[in-house]
Amino acid sequence: MTTALLDLVLPPRCAGCDAPGALVCPSCAEEIRGEPACRMPVPAPPGLPECWSAAEYAGAARRAIISYKERGRTALARPLAGALALTVGTAVGGHPVVLVPVPSARPALRRRGHDPVTRLAELAAGYLREAGWPVMVAGMLAHRRRLADQAGLSSLQRAENLASAFKVAAGWDGLLARSWEGAGVVVLVDDVVTTGATLAEAARALREAGTQAPLAVTLAATRRRGRPREGDGG
Questions:
Q1: pLDDT digits (tens, 9 = 90+) for 181-207
Q2: Cα separations in angstroms, 28 against 64, 68, 72, 120, 166
């Protein structure tokens, strides 16, 4: 029986602390929302946009992200997207927004059975629209080639793995070649920033297609201590 189905038929347990009674308890919900702030990896790779995250990749935030992304607890998308929407709003101020999710690799999509980052971007956009914010989601990035799993790779290995990995998907080239004036701030969206290699490569692909993504927003930012752990992003 899948984790998502178990969430429907059994009393829920908090994804952050495993306490019974709620998908996310109030204390862990506050930790997941965190304190939206600019959190850049050190050292930052060339071309990395300004990175904003809701929280550090630790504690309840880390456990909830892993449960959502890797363990099938897809009901966590809504509380996580709320944290993402709050971070987007803090990062961009009152400007219109174009959210560009970083695409998952096909093997990861098959293994997980869902596209976690795109779903988060869509839900976050909905929350922002409800608050009167002009926002759109543009799935304009695609993989150019097959990638190795990023988990466990060093900073150098991640950069090599991601070199020229993304391209602008078919049908978006002409649109990107036009002026984005009035369309909004282009913001890359991912779940976790670790070395920044993934977001730097995504920004490079957009630049080559004619647009700038000055900001990136994630749920969490990894503390750079030793090797990446389970569920770490790029």
A1: 556 899 999 999 999 989 999 999 999
A2: 9, 14, 19, 18, 35
How many Cα atoms within 13 Å fall on the side-chain side of residue 59?
Answer: 12
Total structural domains within the chain: 1
In a domain? residue 27: no
* CA 178 – CA 73 distance, rounded (Å): 40
Which own/partner pairs from 23-27 qualify as long-range (CB within 8 Å, at least 24 positions apart)? 23/73, 23/75, 23/76, 23/79, 24/60, 24/64, 24/76, 24/79, 27/60
Could you tell me if residue 121 is inside a domain?
Answer: yes
Q: What is the pTM of this model?
A: 0.84
5 within a domain of the structure (yes/no): no
Q: What is the pLDDT of residues 138-148, one digit of tens each?
A: 999 988 755 55
CA angle 7, 12, 16 (to 5 degrees): 105
**Which H helix or E strand runs over 221?**
strand 215-221
Closest CA to 163 of 152, 150, 172: 150
